[in-house]
Specification:
about 40% helix
Length: about 220
């Protein structure tokens, strides 16, 4: 869908107001605005991104269903949190691997929040098994990993010391210490509301594609 602005400034205004009035009563009164300015445009964006995603990898999928699809729920899970605010004040969209069952598989992610919009990709908080496989791939394929690292700045958490069993003198020991393998590309609010944004997001995903390819293959998944 060329030359289409999926998101409007009203999306960010809704999220700002939700930040100030994060309660069920306010949300119920403004549910129609949520549907019009947040949910419906996000689902349209998700469906429209399918051909762009297919060019990146045929094994990642778009799912424009309103629930249990690519769009994260606006409702927070407060069961085990001291923060009882019922709603998220950002929009989260994920494009996951078609394996579907592996929660630790790499993803492409879009985060929309006033003055804090970004694309991200990679593996966030992998379990020990997935983490070991990625670290082992770095050790076994240092030249391939060097090409990934030459283009991207990684984000997330790291261990303070090298994990047990890995050479402290390894040239990528700082990466082996990582607990997250994620990169991101930022966007301005106005850019998100522009007609070129779906192409901008696709370009950001393409920039982070080497990280996604490396981690996907390291976890034994098709790419």
């Amino acid at each position: 869908m060329p030359d289409t602005a999926f998101f409007r400034p009203e999306l960010f205004e809704f999220l700002r107001q939700l930040r100030r009035h994060n309660n069920r009563e306010w949300f119920a009164k403004n549910k129609a605005r949520y549907e019009e300015f947040v949910c419906d445009p996000a689902l349209l964006f998700i469906g429209s991104f399918a051909p762009h995603l297919a060019k990146l990898s045929p094994f990642f999928v778009t799912d424009p269903r309103p629930t249990r699809g690519s769009l994260f729920r606006i409702y927070r899970d407060t069961r085990f949190s001291t923060d009882k605010r019922p709603f998220k004040t950002h929009v989260g969209i994920r494009f996951s691997h078609s394996s579907g069952k592996d929660a630790h598989a790499p993803v492409f992610y879009l985060h929309l929040e006033p003055e804090n919009c970004f694309a991200a990709a990679g593996v966030w908080h992998p379990d020990n098994r997935a983490l070991t496989r990625i670290r082992t791939a770095i050790v076994d394929q240092p030249e391939r990993w060097a090409k990934v690292r030459g283009k991207l700045e990684l984000e997330g958490d790291s261990l303070t010391r090298p994990p047990r069993g890995y050479d402290r003198a390894h040239p990528f020991i700082e990466d082996i210490k990582r607990k997250d393998f994620v990169a991101s590309v930022g966007f301005g609010d106005r850019q998100v509301c522009g007609t070129a944004f779906i192409g901008d997001f696709a370009a950001a995903c393409r920039e982070m594609l080497p990280l996604v390819e490396f981690t996907t293959k390291a976890l034994g998944l098709k790419f």
